[in-house]
Amino acid sequence: MAATRVRGHRAAHGAARDLPGGTLVERVRAALDRHEAGVRKSTEAVAGDDAATAEAPGSTRPEAATGNPAGTAGTAGSAASDWEVRVDDLWCTATLRGRMLPAQGWKIHVSSATASAAEVLDRVCDVLVPRGVAFKCAADSEFLNMLNSREAERSSSGKFITVYPRDDIEFVELVDALDLATRGMVGPGVMSDRACRPGSIVHYRYGGFTSRARLGNDGAYRPVLTAPDGTQVDDSREAWFAPPPWAPDPLAARHTQQGKDGKGGVLVAGRFAVTAAIRHSAKGGVFVGTDTLTGADVVVKQARAFVEVDHSGRDARAALRHESALLERLAATGITPRQVALVEQEGTLFLAQERISGTSLRAWVMRHAGTEPRDAGGSPDVPWSLAGGVVAELLRVVGGMHAEGLVIRDLAPTNVMVTPNGELRLIDLELAADIGSFAGAAGTPGYRAPEQRAGSRSKHARGRGTHPVSPEADLYSLGGLLFLLATGTDPGLPDDVQEPGLSPRSTVDRIAAWLDLAARHGRTARLLAPAIRGLLRDEPGLRWDLDRVRAHLDAVERRGGAPVPAPGRSRDAARPHPWHNPAGRADEPSGPALVDRVLSDGLLHLAATMTPERRDHLWPVTAGGAAMDPCSVQYGGAGVLGVLVRAAQTPTLGPALRDLLRERIRTAADWLRERAEREPVALPGLHFGRSGTAWSLLEAADVLDDRELARQAAEMALKVPVRWPNPDVCHGAAGAGFTQLRFWDATGDDRFRQRVVACADGLLAAAREHGDLMLWQVPKDFDSQLAGAAHLGYAHGVAGIGAFLLAAGRATGRGAYLDAAMAAGRTLSRTVRGDDGAAWWAQGPADPPGVRLVHWCSGSSGAGTFLIRLWHATGDPLPRDLAEQAALAVRRARWHCGTTACHGLAGNGEFLLDLAELADPGAEDTYRRYAEECAELIASRSALLSGRLVPCDETAVGTSASYGTGLAGVAGFLLRLRHGGPRLWIDPVDAGTRLSGMEPIDLDRAEAEEAGDAAEDASADEAHRPERPAAAVTMTTAATPVTPVAPVTNAVTAVTAAVPDAAPSAPAPAVPPSAASAGTSGTTEGGHAA
Predict the structure, then answer these.
(1) Taking a C-beta distance cutoff of 8 angstroms, is the pair 1001, 711 a contact?
(2) Distance CA 473, CA 650 (A)
(3) Which pairs with CB-CB distance under 8 Å and at least 24 residues apart come from 330-334?
(4) Which of 432, 656, 864, 916 is most buried when burial is the number of CB atoms within 10 A of its CB?
């Protein structure tokens, strides 16, 4: 995660200036050389003394006489070559060869202001190197700047140098020596640590020394410590001093008069009672509270020392003092809050200011965007009746600031408050500057002007990284805010990365397709589009000024607010979708050609960015995925591999691309298999656990015609636990059950059927009735972030569990599973949140009424994914009606969704394709058109990376490969949309073909015991099997996709022979589910004739 954060910081702020005397790594090497030279000189002097006193009786060496530990250590590490110095993207680590570090203990952190970092490092090295003490430091000043910035994790902030003592005795000695050596030096406090004394830059905490992590129940690696009783516990990195209870502080006696550490109520300056936090950051928090002198509500901003140092050397405290002065200067304008007080307490600065009633512009837009749909498809924008007044207010406050000689420099939706009477006020003015002054890179991504970004060049700049402050920067930001009003989303996109010699696209070109789509469907978007294009010009001198924006709006008012028709589009919003209109314009800015390019480019990008030489992740991930299992579907290689396999099996993609993908599939499969073998923990989840890994490898074995890989995948699947405290699809038992179904269908191995039964039985036992609802709750004492949760959605709740029970019931013919699936459907029907023909769901049934979610993980898309299959299986029209209402909610919300499969357009588009295949035949074109709309929006949010159009990931300003949160999930959706095929990870029976002739797998001891237990459970269930549900189970085949994928006949081949019907009273046949229905047609029930 730190690597991802520092890359983002570098992109935002640029490289730091070189430190005097060379880089930090060079200074570490110089310290080792300096010590070697000192030892050599000392040795030569001692040798001379020895020669002079060789005949003196009883003479000794100085070290032996004094027992000087420094002298002994110095001899051991006297040569620079005795040290191993390792440098990576973030850290420089120096370790004396042969010295073994303890696994954990009291570690020391030394902080430093960036300007004095070289001297601090020199002083620390002079203490550590003679003693042979291992340490690491930031590898360059750029990373140190990040550690000292607002972007740093609070638990990591300020940790410039980390020292690893051998034991508690050395720890105490080093703390004292380092504190003495660094007296007078300055640096930020380290929030996770305790300072050795007030004002010292030497801090300490108890933690791990070596990289020891365990895979937690949620699929994330967590650093661990070993308790005295041998158990492993989390190595918690809190933003306050919190050692484990069994590790007493060796320096505790020194802190008895310093007050207690930790959390609690705060009274700032004896006056301002802080009651809640708006946000926390390494720079300092923002809090709400009460002025105890007046009783008024206040906002209190905090600035910590030596954090967020700018190009001029000013830190967060200077920025807060600057904001305080601006509030005083602007008090008469009514544009900003009123300042109450500026106070300093224990080296930290606090600014108390008037609390503005109302909400941020971002929250206001989220509340109003899309609330005035022109048709059932919804609109992207804030209705003009509301947006027009906000635009006028924006012009007023921006013009007012410029009239005061100031440039806002961070005009962003979180820094603008909308009051109850519709007026706007500006907050967070710490970046504002006088016109004509010089400032460094700053601002909010998507809203900051190009000249405010790192690396921008100006002929008027004074010093590296600075630019002249001009009002044109605010004009660009104003364009971003108008874009927000027009689309309901931020204008941020990943930066283009062009080939050498090619210029990146302009901002207007990059957002053109996105803005054009919005302008076709939204009145406000059409009215504001000319101004947006005029304001978002990259060249400051070409931007519209405020007068021109006002003139444009005046012209709109003179027309009575009548919209200007979009080019090439009538005012009739019901015009047939261009993909289905042969007479549509050939120059549509978006459409099948663009989507096909994004698909092809996306697959090529996945092929080009695989990094099999790395051990952490096979493809780049977001910061949220850095600590996750690299073999999973959600964030890891299994999800990407699944998409590459599907693409390689698609003849219409062309042989050259498919051959390239097969090469990558071979490499990826080997990497995943080897990496998974090194991990002893086998979690059950389909998206965060080993179930998804096994499934993905099975599909890879098919395309590679690799029976050994298929056998290994099956072994992996047999090791997955099928009973688990978490019952859900992503992390738990239902996900394991889906994979067992897939392997039973593929191999015909009865052990997988037994495990399907064991899994389904466990879920039946875990179900709980809450009134008229059936819910599955994660136990409250389970070690998981989901502990106590009882969700409704597909990823973590009723919809996903119901989908597995439905599939298990259809495959095994067991009525109890089908009964439970129908109960799950009734639960969703009783918890739906309907409005104007659309259906939403909350995360849980007790969520506030205003919570309405639309995604696969939680909300309409996931609920609909299950409900349409429930209708298809039972014939009950209620699930179908709810699924179609869910589709309407999904379509209306498309404008304000991200791109991804888990919680974005790709996952929602997959659900719409389900409806196109499974719903009434007459509705196929409608739902395909809805899915195509999702694809167009995805394509419009793409960056140009080395000539390839690549959609943004869940961050909206970056790209990554992950299936759930990045490119792979998008590519999977686009592949299915344009070339057909089943949906990945959803329908295990229809997912692929059957593995024929695979040799039986030799179970290990634990596997054999587990299989025996499962068989015993299955036998007992057969003896007490409940009556079948009365409703018929419809087993019709899904509608043929537009371009069906041809069956593959290598290691995995299709089963073509139907299994004969069994007698109604006979147990469920021990045959793969696909074999049970292959070659049949019409209505069946559990494989029996209806």
Answers:
(1) yes
(2) 48
(3) 330/401, 330/404, 330/406, 330/429, 333/400, 333/404, 334/425
(4) 864
- pTM comes to 0.84
For residues 440 and 473, the answer to whether their CB atoms sit within 8 Å is no
Structure tokens given for 870 = 């429930």
- Find all residues with CB under 8 Å of 711, minimum gap 6, and list them: 998, 999, 1001
Tell which residue, 849, 856, 820, has the closest CA to residue 835: 849
862-899 pLDDT, tens digit per residue, is: 999 999 999 999 999 999 999 999 999 999 999 999 99
- Residue 857 is assigned to a ligand binding site: yes
* Structure tokens belonging to residue 886: 């869910």
- Summarised one tens digit per residue, pLDDT across range 311-321 is 778 899 999 99
**Percentage of the chain with pLDDT > 90?**
71
Question: Read out DSSP for 623-641?
Answer: GGGTTB-TTSSSSSHHHHH
Q: How far apart are CA 275 and CA 294, in angstroms?
A: 16
In this prediction, residue 500 carries a pLDDT of: 81
Separation of alpha carbons 117 and 17, rounded Å: 12
Residue 1005, classified by CB atoms within 10 Å of its CB into exposed (0-12), middle (13-18) or buried (19+), is exposed
The whole-angstrom separation of Cα 795 and Cα 813 is: 25
CB 1076 within 8 A of CB 1088: no
Least confident of 9-13, 144-148, 347-351: 9-13
Looking at domain 378-562, its CATH architecture is Orthogonal Bundle (1.10)
- The yes/no answer on whether domain 592-995 falls in CATH 1.50.10.10 is yes
- Do 592-995 and 2-50+69-255 fall under one CATH topology? no
Could you tell me which CATH class the domain 264-355 is placed in? alpha beta
**Parallel, antiparallel or unpaired: strands 221-226 and 232-234:** antiparallel
Is 759 annotated as belonging to a binding site? no
Query: Among residues 1035, 967, 235, which one has the least CA distance to residue 640?
Result: 967
Cβ–Cβ under 8 Å, residues 625 and 965: yes
902 carries a ligand binding annotation? yes
C-alpha 737/C-alpha 704 separation (Å) is: 25
The answer to whether residues 284 and 348 touch, using CB atoms and an 8 Å cutoff, is yes
3-state SS assignment for residue 853:
strand
3 state SS for 907-955? HHHHHHHHHHHHCCHHHHHHHHHHHHHHHHHHHHCEEEECCEEEECCCC
Strands (E), 184-257: 194-195, 202-208, 213-215, 221-226, 232-234
Q: Quickly count: other Cβ atoms within 10 Å of residue 612's Cβ.
A: 14
User: How many CA within 13 A on the CB side of residue 439?
Assistant: 24
Q: What number is the average pLDDT over the span 174-197?
A: 96
Tokens 């357009």 belong to 905
The CATH class for the domain spanning 2-50+69-255 reads alpha beta
183: tokens are 């007296």
CB 461 within 8 A of CB 468: yes
Sheet with strand 266-268: strands edge to edge = 266-268, 272-279, 286-291, 297-303, 348-354, 339-345
Q: Are 677 and 631 in contact (CB under 8 A)?
A: no
Whole-angstrom CA distances from 874 to 232, 730, 808, 863 are 48, 25, 14, 16
Q: What is the DSSP string of 965-983?
A: TSHHHHHHHHHHHHH--PP
The answer to whether the CB of 930 falls within 8 A of the CB of 891 is: yes
CA distances from 280 to 14, 299, 984 (A): 24, 13, 39
pLDDT tens across 469-526, in order?
999 999 999 999 999 999 999 998 999 998 787 888 999 999 999 999 999 999 999 9
In the chain, where are the structural domains located? 2-50+69-255, 264-355, 378-562, 592-995
- Of 480, 331, 344, nearest to 415 by C-alpha is 480
